[in-house]
Structures are given as structure tokens and as C-alpha cells.
Design a protein that fits this description.
- By secondary structure, the chain is an alpha/beta fold.
- It has two domains: 186 residues, Rossmann fold (3-Layer(aba) Sandwich), CATH 3.40.50; 175 residues, Glycogen Phosphorylase B (Rossmann fold), CATH 3.40.50.
- It is 38% helix and 20% strand.
- The protein contains 14 helices and 15 strands.
- Strands 3-2-1-6-7-8-9 form a seven-stranded parallel sheet, with helices on both faces. The chain has a six-stranded parallel sheet with strand order 12-11-10-13-14-15, with helices on both faces. Strands 4-5 form a two-stranded antiparallel sheet.
- A hairpin with a 4-residue loop joins β4 and β5.
- α1 crosses α14.
- The longest helix has 18 residues.
- The chain starts with 16 loop residues before the first strand and ends with a helix.
Length: 381
């Protein structure tokens, strides 16, 4: 019998499960690992394939057993901010830890694929985080390579229902749980409210916010073009661009030509609430965004969100004109229209709607569902 998340009903295990997670970097998921480690039914160890360079999480913040595997970088995608590494001694370390269950960080991670193959050879059950739901130009290659792998997985953790459908389409048949965020949205929300209250009387203008790498793949050029074209009709609105990258000079150039855009270099993750507290609407016009964690983060902070239809989390979190707006990717005219719609909307009501929606998918919910799935897999293995 399946429950609403795609997993069968289960009984709480009598003994704890030795769960080893193999993941890319520490940055994005510290809160999730910490909450999983606090689950009484799990004994968690996390193996990271490499150290993160974004500043979104530091090893000193990790309150769970973790290791950084020896790594050699063999590739890098600057636009997506990802690295490909080879970890020496991965299989030996997995053998030392002797997991009851393995959780791997997706089919696009070389280290995770090696870990899944190790588990398969030793009859250790394993499950995975899914990655993208988007049928891009290489979808034919995924349909060729991934089905045999996904068919062997014992379960899936998916970000949003679109990913669940994507996994099924590629041949995944095991139980799954749906999560909406691996971040501590509740703490982020509270901290942003505190900062906003402290500076409430000093804010006089409304602000759109772009937060991310300043690269073409984020669709920043479309946002800059759209905002420049309509700023005369949005007299009370400015645009804040936060991040670093190749397009920083273009942002500065627009500012010098009278466009109301302010550039702030990338900030440490602990200062994100300060940035969110300055803004009224987040804009994420990405050309390709497998998920986009900044969407639930911004909504938890009370910001309605404008996102392209290529942002994975958009269909999960955005209700049109209720919690935000979506527009067709690379359509500058459509983006300009939703920017204008946002400038005329009841943002106070939408702010409450956005926060309520996001906090339903806090990391605590994710940890509980993953623990539930781990118990199911052990009982049926």
C-alpha cells in the first residue's frame, strides 16, 4: 500500500540503520544532514566528494559525522558552478563504514555513480537524490544510459512532483518521497523578519532582487533588458543584483548609464537574510535551473517570486498571482509584463502566501520523509 508520497506504509525499525550518504559538497545540505543525524532510527555518516567554493556552508558548521574524500578535479562547468572530481579510495572507505543503506547524490555525480555501483556489487540497498526534470538536448542520452541504473535503485528522494514523473519516465520503479527543500527555511524566515523589522522605517523604495551567479545561463541579460525597458513606468522600483561572475561589468555598465540597478558582490550565506530583507520580489529568469533552492528560500523570507518556466521549483512553489509569477524562458516581453504585474500587486498579501507555502516544505519535513523511506527500504530488502 502506498502513502501520499509514493512509499508503502511501514513500521518503525527496532534497531538503528547505518546510513552512509555520498554527496558532492557540504554547502547546500548541512541542515538536512544535521536533521537526519538527529533521527533516532539512523546512524548517519556523510562522505563529501569535494569542498565547496560558494561559501554557503563551512565544515565547522557540520554537527554530524562527515568526511571529505581525497579529490582530484577533472572537470568544471563554470556556468552551472559544478565540478567533476575523482575520489581516491572511495570504495575502500565505503567498505570500512559497512553501511546498511547507501544514499547517493544523483546520477550526474561521478562519485555517487561509483558508490551506487559499489553497493550493487555488494548487495547493499541504495537510494538516490534525483537531479533534473528537464528534457534538454541530451535527454536521448539519458534515456539510453539511465534506465538500467534507475531500475536498480531501491528508492528516490525527489524535489517536487515533476522530478517524480521524470524518474518514472526514465525507468525508476522504486518508492519515492517528495521534498521541497533541504534548507532550514524556518530559521531563515525568522532571521529575515528580524532584520526587516530593524530597518523597516529606513526603506523608501521597492526592490526586485536577482540572487545568483552572474552568468548567461541565469538569464540575467533578459532581466536587465526587461527592467531597463520599463523602468520609466516603475518609478518606485529598483533592481538589486547580488552575485559575482562574467556579467558583473555589464551590470556596472547599466548602472553608469542611468539604469536603477545596484550590484552587490556575492555574500556569505549567513548574510543572505540581510539581502532578502532589503527586497520585495525575487526574480529568477534562468535558462536552465534543475531546481532552484533560492525560490523556497526567498518565499520563506516573504518574497513573492518571478521565475522562468525552466526553473524546476517554480511549478512546485509558484501559484500564479498568489505566491508569484512564471513566464516563458528567454521571453523578455513576457518578463517585462510580469515585472509590471508585480509592481501593481498586493505584495503584503502575496508575501504571507509565499511564506506559508514555503514553510510547509522546511528541512524538518524533508528529514522525516527520507527517514521514512530509509525504513521502508530496509524492511523490504
Amino acid at each position: 500500500m502506498l502513502c501520499e508520497h509514493g512509499v508503502p506504509d511501514f513500521k518503525e525499525p527496532a534497531v538503528s540503520i547505518r546510513l552512509v550518504a555520498v554527496h558532492s559538497t557540504a554547502a547546500a545540505d548541512l541542515a538536512l544532514w544535521a536533521h537526519l543525524a538527529a533521527e533516532p532510527s539512523l546512524e548517519l555518516s556523510v562522505l563529501f566528494s569535494h569542498r565547496d567554493e560558494s561559501g554557503r556552508g563551512q565544515p565547522s558548521e557540520a554537527s554530524f559525522h562527515h568526511e571529505f574524500l581525497p579529490a582530484r578535479r577533472i572537470g568544471r562547468n563554470v556556468d552551472r558552478g559544478t565540478s567533476v572530481v575523482w575520489n581516491v579510495g572511495l570504495e575502500e572507505r565505503l567498505g570500512d563504514l559497512s553501511p546498511d543503506l547507501l544514499l547517493v547524490g544523483g546520477y550526474g555525480n561521478l562519485t555517487a555513480l561509483r558508490a551506487a555501483i559499489w553497493a550493487q556489487k555488494r548487495n547493499v540497498p541504495w537510494f538516490m537524490f534525483s537531479e533534473t526534470w528537464i528534457r534538454g538536448s541530451r535527454y536521448w542520452l539519458k534515456r539510453l544510459i539511465l534506465p538500467p541504473l534507475l531500475a536498480r535503485a531501491s528508492g528516490f528522494v525527489v524535489l517536487g512532483q515533476p522530478q517524480a514523473r521524470y524518474i518514472r519516465d526514465l525507468g525508476g520503479v522504486a518508492p519515492f518521497v517528495v521534498i521541497g527543500s533541504n534548507r532550514d527555511l524556518l530559521s531563515l524566515s525568522k532571521r529575515t523578519d528580524e532584520v526587516r523589522a530593524a530597518f523597516a522605517n529606513s526603506r523608501q523604495r521597492k526592490k526586485f532582487l536577482f540572487l545568483g551567479r552572474l552568468v548567461e545561463g541565469k538569464g540575467l541579460n533578459n532581466l536587465l533588458s526587461s527592467f531597463r525597458g520599463i523602468q520609466s513606468r516603475l518609478s518606485q522600483w529598483d533592481l538589486i543584483v547580488v552575485g559575482d561572475g562574467p556579467m558583473a561589468e555589464e551590470v556596472h555598465g547599466l548602472s553608469g548609464r542611468g539604469v536603477r540597478v545596484e550590484h552587490i558582490s556575492a555574500v556569505p550565506f549567513d548574510r543572505i537574510p540581510n539581502i532578502l530583507a532589503q527586497a520585495d520580489v525575487l526574480v529568477l529568469p534562468s535558462r536552465f535551473e534543475p531546481w532552484g533552492q533560492v525560490v523556497p528560500e526567498a518565499m520563506a523570507a516573504g518574497l513573492p517570486v518571478i521565475a522562468s518556466d525552466r526553473v524546476g521549483s517554480a511549478s512546485h512553489f509558484i501559484e500564479e498571482a498568489v505566491t508569484g509569477w512564471t513566464f516563458p524562458v528567454d521571453d523578455s516581453i513576457a518578463l517585462a509584463k510580469v515585472l509590471e504585474a508585480a509592481s501593481l500587486a498586493d505584495l503584503r498579501t502575496m508575501s504571507g502566501n509565499a511564506k506559508s507555502k514555503a514553510l510547509q516544505w522546511d528541512v524538518r519535513q524533508a528529514a522525516a520523509r527520507i527517514t521514512e523511506l530509509a525504513s521502508i527500504i530496509i524492511q523490504h530488502s
